Amino acid sequence: MDHSKSSGDTAINIGESNSAKHKTAFTATTKAVPLAAPQPAWKRGVSIFDFILRVCALVAALAATATMGTTDQTLPFFTQFFQFQASYDDLPTFTFFVVANAIASGYLVLSMPFSIVAIVRPHAAGVKLLLLILDTVVMAFTIAAAAAAAAIVYLAHNGNSNTNWFAICQQFNDFCQRVSGAVVASFIAAVVFICLVVLSAVALRRH
Fold first, then answer.
1. Rounded CA separation 170/162 (Å)
2. Which pLDDT does position 26 carry in this prediction?
3. Beta strands in 67-207 (DSSP E)
4. Which helix or strand (DSSP H or E) is residue 108 part of?
5. DSSP character for 39?
6. DSSP 54
7. Residue 75 has what pLDDT?
8. How much is the pLDDT for 82?
9. Which residue from 47, 201, 203 is spatially nearest to 139, judged by alpha carbons?
10. Cβ distance 190 to 146 under 8 Å?
11. What is the pLDDT of residue 44?
């Protein structure tokens, strides 16, 4: 009798052990199932905003290039020997301004397909890094051209008696208005480039 009871107790213990093992295995299996990571929608939104900013920068850079590149004014009073004329290519600074903004415009056109790739593939870090580097270079180029042209425009409006630089905007009013507008458009493009650089840096930082 004692032997059968002992055998019965042993059978019960084995059953509990198997149940405990099964429960442990089920728990381990449940914990091992990986949860699907949610796709971050903000990355695609950042890429779309990047493309919109590029379009805005392109419009501003093209406006600056076209306005400065077509600036030319001839005063109505002139003689047989003297003709009072002002043109952007009379000053190397304005010529550099036109070239710099034209390069920026061309770069923005070429960068748009890469921006579209970033929209289609938000996780592509290589494309964003390339755009970040090139945006930084073109941004510096655009700021340098705009700042140099702004200095000449300031002298054209106010002059400088120490260097005998006379203010010419009283005579060449249309010329000064056009070059001033071109400089403002170039600075707008530069500010948009700064936004593009910051946006790309933040996107890469959270990638």
1. 19
2. 42
3. 72-74, 85-87
4. helix 92-120
5. P
6. H
7. 64
8. 55
9. 201
10. yes
11. 78
